[in-house]
Amino acid sequence: MPYVEWRGNKCRVKWWSGEYLENGKKKYESKSGFDNEESAYNYGADREYEVRHGTRVAKSRGDILMHTYSLEIWLPDQDLRHGSIRTYRSILTAQINKQ
Questions:
Q1: What is the DSSP code (8-state) at residue 25?
Q2: Are 43 and 13 in contact (CB under 8 A)?
Q3: Which of 1, 19, 52, 85 could join 27 via S-S bond, C-beta 3.0 to 4.6 A?
Q4: pLDDT score at 64
Q5: Are 32 and 12 contacting, i.e. CB atoms less than 8 angstroms apart?
């Protein structure tokens, strides 16, 4: 069950990541920046659903290369104008995706 707490003017939610630390304790992940407790709780519940059903992608996963992630996963998910997408693609290619 996700845990929601207020941090200043925004909410933060914590949930179990499905992993354990070396000392046997559960490893938790968190996300902040929510405006209300309901949206934070729903976000945490969705992450726990992914853990239970085996569809979770760990933050520390290293099998996706940065150039693949930035151009094929991250950039298409952004809600940007065409000109902005072109600018971002140019910056990513020049700085991150040097080949």
A1: P
A2: yes
A3: 19
A4: 77
A5: yes
Please state the domain extents for the chain: 3-53, 66-96
Rounded to two decimals, what is the model's pTM?
0.60
Residue 3 burial by Cβ neighbours in a 10 Å radius (0-12, 13-18, 19+):
middle
Compute CA distances 71 → 66, 88, 93, whole Å: 8, 9, 9
Q: How confident is the model at residue 42 (pLDDT cuts 50, 70, 90)?
A: very high
CA distance 36 to 11: 6
The pLDDT value given to residue 15: 94
Please state, in angstroms and rounded to a whole number, the distance separating the CA atoms of residues 48 and 1: 8
Overall average pLDDT of the 74-99 stretch: 86
Q: Where are the alpha helices (DSSP H) in 2-92?
A: 37-53, 66-68, 82-91
Could you give the angle at the alpha carbon of 68 between the alpha carbons of 64 and 74, nearest 5°?
A: 100
